[in-house]
Design brief:
Number of domains: 1
CATH architecture: 3-Layer(aba) Sandwich
CATH superfamily: Collagenase (Catalytic Domain)
Strand content: 15-25%
Shape: globular
Oligomer: single chain
Order of helices and strands: HEEEHEEEEHHEHEE
Largest sheet: 6 strands, mixed
C-alpha cells in the first residue's frame, strides 16, 4: 500500500494504498498508530522484546507456488513494466534460494487465457481514487483468513496510461509501484523502512530513487513458500537485512531445480 499524494514530473498521485479484508480501516493511519504504540512501549515495557528484531507482518500466503498473472496488454509500456516487476520478484527469490535447491519459491507466470488467479487492472475504483494509486484486494479460501486463492490489483490509470509512454520518470515510478503491489499479492505486509519496497509510504524524493528488495522481504517469501503463514516473519539472529536494487534481478540468470526458465525481461528504462 502507498499513502498520501504529491506531485511529480507527471500528473499523478505518487502514493498508493492497499486493502485487505482484515485491515481496511486501520491501514490509512498505520504509521501514526505504530508510532504511538512504540512510544507507549518505551514507557511501559521494562524490556523491549522485539527491539533488536527485523520483522515484517504477513497478510497471508498464496495457496499455490505458481501464481498465474494477467497483465493488460495495453498500454504496452505499462504491460512491460508490470511484467518486469514480476520477473524481478521471480529472479530475486531464485537468487535468495540458489544454494538451496530443495527450497520452494513463488513464481509469477503471465497468462491471458482466462486461468489467472491474480489480475492487474490499469484502473482505480472510485472508492479508492483520491487516496491511492495502487490497491490490492484479496480472495481467501473458504473459512480461512490466511490462505490467498486470488487477488485483484488496481493501478492508477493516471500513471499507467499511454500518454506517459515517453516519460522516464513515470516508467521508473510505475516499476516501483508494480513491485510493491506484487509483493502484496504474495502476502507481504508493511515495513517502516523508507528504502524497502514494502514500506507503505514514500516521499517525493524517494519516488525518484531506484526501488530495492530486502533480505527480509525475500526470507519472508521463503517462509511462506514452505507452507507457513505466521502473523510476522522475523529474520534469524545474526542475519543482515541487506537491500538489493530490484532492476539487478532483470539482468542476470538464476537457476533452481524446481523452476522453469524465466522469460527474458522486456526493454524499458528502469
Amino acid at each position: 500500500m502507498w499513502f498520501k499524494k504529491c506531485t511529480s514530473q507527471f500528473d499523478a498521485g505518487l502514493f498508493a494504498t492497499r486493502n485487505t479484508l482484515s485491515y481496511v480501516s486501520r491501514r490509512s493511519v498505520e504509521r501514526s498508530v505504530l508510532g504511538i504504540v512504540l512510544l507507549l512501549l518505551v514507557f511501559v515495557a521494562a524490556v523491549p522484546v522485539h527491539a533488536a528484531e527485523v520483522s515484517i507482518p504477513i497478510i497471508g500466503r498464496y495457496s499455490t507456488l505458481v501464481i498465474p498473472l494477467y497483465i493488460p496488454p495495453y498500454p504496452k509500456w505499462a504491460h512491460d513494466v508490470v511484467l518486469n516487476a514480476s520477473i524481478a520478484w521471480n529472479n530475486a527469490e531464485l537468487w535468495q534460494n540458489q544454494n538451496n535447491n530443495s527450497a520452494s519459491v513463488y513464481t509469477f507466470v503471465e497468462t491471458n487465457d482466462g486461468t489467472a488467479t491474480s489480475t492487474i487492472s490499469f484502473s482505480m475504483p472510485q472508492a479508492y481514487a483520491g487516496i491511492a494509486v495502487g490497491w490490492t484486494n484479496y480472495n481467501f479460501a473458504a473459512g480461512s483468513r490466511t490462505s490467498i486463492v486470488g487477488t485483484q490489483t488496481f493501478l492508477d490509470p493516471s500513471v499507467f496510461n499511454q500518454s506517459q509512454s515517453g516519460n522516464v520518470t513515470a516508467w521508473r515510478y510505475a516499476f516501483r509501484l508494480a513491485l510493491h503491489e506484487l509483493g502484496r499479492v504474495q502476502g507481504l505486509g508493511s515495513v517502516l523502512d523508507g528504502q524497502d519496497i514494502m514500506d507503505p509510504l514514500c516521499t517525493p524524493q524517494q519516488a525518484g530513487e531506484v526501488p530495492k528488495l530486502s533480505t527480509l522481504d525475500l526470507f519472508a517469501l521463503h517462509v511462506l513458500a514452505l507452507g507457513n503463514s505466521p502473523q510476522f516473519v522475523t529474520l534469524p539472529a545474526g542475519t543482515q537485512n541487506q537491500l538489493t536494487v530490484a532492476a539487478h534481478f532483470l539482468h542476470r540468470t538464476f537457476t533452481h531445480s524446481k523452476t522453469n526458465t524465466i522469460k527474458n525481461y522486456e526493454s524499458c528504462p528502469i
